[in-house]
Every structure is written in C-alpha cells, then in structure tokens.
Amino acid sequence: MRFTGSFICSVALLLPSAGMGQAPLQGRVMDARTQEPLPYASVATAKDGKGVITNEEGVFRIPSVAAEDTLLFSYLGYHRLRMAAGEVRTRHEVLLQPSVTELSAVQVVGRNDALYDLVIACGKQLRQAGRYEGKTYYQLETRTLDLPVEGVECFYNGRFNGADIDALDLKQGRIGLLPVHGRYMVNLNTSRAFMLLHPAERNSAFPATPLRYRSRKALRKAFDLTVVATMHAPQELVQVSFTPKDTGGAFFSGKLWIETATATVRSMELDCDRCTRHPFLPMGPEDELRDLSIHYLQTFSTWEGRPVVNTVALEYAYTYHTGPEAARIAERDPAFRNDWKFRTKGILHLYAPGEKFILPFFRYDAGQMDYRKVLSMPYDSAFWANAPSLVQTDRQQRDETLFAQQGLLLGTREMDPMERGRSGFFESTYAFWSPAMRIHLKNLLDSAASAPPTANADGATATADQLHLVAQLYLNVDRTPEGYRTFSATVFDGFNSWCHLPEKERSDLLLNIYFDLCEVERRRMQAALDAPGLSLERIRDIHAEAEKAMERRTAAFLKDTHYGADRQVMKRWNDLVRKELGVDNFKIFGLADGDG
User: Quick check: pTM over 0.70?
Assistant: First the structure.
C-alpha cells in the first residue's frame, strides 16, 4: 500500500507554561446526557487562549496549571463551559450540555434555493480563505486481526490554504512496525493522503463534496441537501445533511456545520462506502483493494479573526486481496492469506497557528517519502521529551510495547541503522556516528579493471574519481524560554557515497577515519553552540563554518594519504582520531602500526 499507518489517533497537546504553584492536570470531557467521551474537544486557558485537545477517549492533560486558572471547554454542538482548574482537578470529569435542536420530520426545512446558495457560498469562502502556517502534529495507526501493524508519529511545519493542506515539512518523526505472518504493512508516504483531499475544489483523488460546486443547478443535480439541526449560541449554526444522487462511490455523503451569518464551515463530516475514487494503491501490480470505505472529519477554529484548520481525522478500511502471484507463496506457507482486512485511523492537528519550528539543518532529497526522511534523522531525545505530550490509552501503550519487542522501531532511541535485521526497505542509507559502530560501504568493486593507476611499483597512488564520500553535520534547533537548544550528529550519506578502491581493508580504514574526522569537527561545532546567548543567525553561521571546516579537513586527509594508499600517513591521522575521540581504527581493523 502507498497509504497505510499506525498508533491510534489520540492526541492531547500541552501548554508550555510553567510557574510557581502550578501542577499537571488531567481530566475527561464527556457528554452530560449520554456520558459518552467527546474526542478532539478543545480545552484552553482563559488567560491566554492556548490549549490542548482531548484524545479519542475524551482525555486531556495540561502539564502545568494553577488551581485558580480558568479553563474553557468547547465542542461543536455543545454549550461552552468555564471551570476553575481546581474544580476540574477535584471532579476529574467535565460534562458538556448539548446545545443542538434536532428537527423533527415535520420541521425539516432547507430543500430550497437559499440552502443551496448557502453551501455554495461556504465553498467560495473556503477557496478564498487564504494561506497560513503553524506547528502541526500527526499520528496514524493501521490495524489488522486486532493487531497494530504500523504506528507513525510526526511533527511538521504545516502550510495551509483554507481547508487544504498545501505542505507538511518534517521536523521530527518516529515509526513503529509489527510484522504479521512475517510480512510488514507500510505507508510509503504517511502524510500524503491528508494533502490530497481538497474539500472545496475539484478532486480527482477523493470522492466529490457539495462544497466544490459553484452553481445552484450543478449542486442540485449532484446532491440533496437538508437542514437537520440548529444551534443558536453563541452564534447561529445549522447542520446540513447531504446525500449524493449518484451512489456509485464517487461522491461523499455527510454533514456540514455552517455559521449562517458568515457562510463559514465550522465542521465537515464526509463518508463513502465502497469508494471507487481514492488515492490508495496496492503494492503488487495484480493485487486489489476491495470494499474500501472512508470517513473524514475536519473541524475549524478561529485565529486572528478567521477560520483555520483545527483537526483533520481520516479513517479508511479495506480488504487487501493478493493477486495470482501469491499462489506460489500460499503453497509454501500454510498461514498465508489472500485477503487481509485493514483499518487505518489518523489525525492531523494544527496546534499552534502562526508559529513555526526551526527545521533541522540537513540536506536530503525533498522528494523522499516520510519513511526515508525519518530514517535520515538521528533521534533527538530532548525534543521528544519536551514535545507536546500525548495521553496514551492502555491499548496504545500495549501497541508500543509490541513494536519494541516483536517489530521494528524507526527513528527512536532503540533504532540502530546499522543493526542486523534492518535490511531491505528498512535499511537506512544514513549512518549516525558512534564510537561503538564502524561503517562499511556495500558493493565495493574488486575487479582488476577498477584498480587505481600506479605511480610506483607498490601502486601507492589512487585518484579522486575512484571514491566519493559525503557526510553532513545534522543540527536540530529549538526555541526555549532560556534561549536556543541545539542537538547535533554526524551523518554519513551512504546513498550519495561510493568507493571503487580494490582493497576492502583499505576502504574500510579510509572510510572510518574519514567519518571520525567529521565527528571531530562536529564536537568543535557543538562546543561553540553551547555558548550562552547565541542568536539564531549566529547558530546558522557556526553550522556553516563547521561544515566548511569539515570539508577542508577531510579533503586534506584524502590528499595527504593518497586516498588511503600511504599507510604511514594514515597512521598519523589515526593517531589524531585516537587522541580526539579515543577510537583506534588500526586496532579495530586488526592492523599493526607497521603494517603497510
């Protein structure tokens, strides 16, 4: 599959404030009438308006709040509630009263021109809403046979245009995978499905919505609209139900919450059973996706006087049918199944409109899918420790344990990109420097045709066109109340590096001393970055200067050693590395000081 994923979508994003007399606060938001939890309800402080959302079980957590602070609770279709934090801490539950008036069959109204004109105006308003940015959290889960098969968690700089997601620029990510009968199910580009749905535009990737239409005649031809509920406080909203006249799987049905005075959509819910129009593709050319259904929910909040995306939840289910090629596998494996039922649940939350992460200083192919981007980034434990925390359900905690014990963890502290078993698709082309890990390039050419030209009888001279080594100084920067926090790592780029030296022993020694020299420059850079009071501009300059110094140092090393051919000179560079890092490559690779 191109789009599938894990971690159930529960999110509670936290307030960064802290102070005297403050303590963490956790509670649950529920429907006062039914006692059902309210997922993705908003919880904000009255003082500054910053807040969190509840997870799918209605649970929220605020890391630091004073008992006298006032919290505001809101959920579309319910009366807003103000409550002191101290009272919430005592009760643990917050009950919201429904504010919706559901219309009876006799009262049903809205099959008139004004209703169709209102929906058309809403679509126009979304198309003209303009662009905005913000810090965005993303989480995705796929399950089969009641097991989690993939979990994705990412932070992005989100770029939006009205209801559309224009771009998601990765800040940090991590992935968990669990094989089922020895096979992995992966989402090749975890965020792409969210970006392909444009609710108010013509949409070839997803079923059509009523918001895309610009004329009453065309809208009436495609959909029946009905007002089914109203809400009068704090402003009048109507809930409009829409049903497609074509039930062949190319149109959504669903509901819209519309603020009538401004023709503004506050929430949309889209459903399609047995969809014939969707962006999901099977991995095998003869495989099929059958009985695919989609449920989509998008809510909006107000920022700087205009509506912006708040939360997007996407759920889809399907049967994956393997093609004729799988018949041979089935003959060898009695546990093999031709049909697998998968269900994916994902959520994307714009939790800080107008704010942006400082993206990592790292060059990678912008066209790479999210998996490759996550694999290219070393694990920044401080970022994850201070990132907006999630209220995990018991099931989520069990899922995470399964990933760690029986599957793969990518982009986490447990992941070692050079560890055995991380082969094939999951094998990283990047290596992160570690004193306990030595690296090797694959596919070294050993034929006589690749041997370097010789300058003497011993063949001590090689040429620059026989190898190309690339490393980067990865740098992650975060703003904190005390200034800027930095995290750096030395990253070897195995994708863009190659080596045609004929001797593996010589190549390994050359490669690792090269990588160690890059690490020496990183440590010097990090020492400079640890100085207090640095500006972001100065941090950028230090990083740029360190990369230039790294390039000069490694170029001098390669030239001085004749690309590893002069073993005595290599010994001197090895001594420098041993002094700076405590790593003796001659000893590690079993070479005596006088070997040559």
Answer: yes
